[in-house]
Amino acid sequence: MRRKDDLEAIRQRMVAEQIRGRGIRDERILAAMATIPRHHFVPYTKPRDVYRDGPLPIGQGQTISQPYITAYMTDLLQLREASRVLEIGTGSGYQAALLSFLCTDVYTIEIIRAHYIRARKIIERLKYKNIHFREGNGREGWPEEAPFDGIVVTAAAKGKVPVALLNQLNDGGRMVIPIGQSLYDQQLVVYTRKKDRLIEKEDLAVRFVPLVEGSSTSQHVEK
Ligand code: SAH
Question: What is the pTM of this model?
Answer without folding.
Answer: 0.94
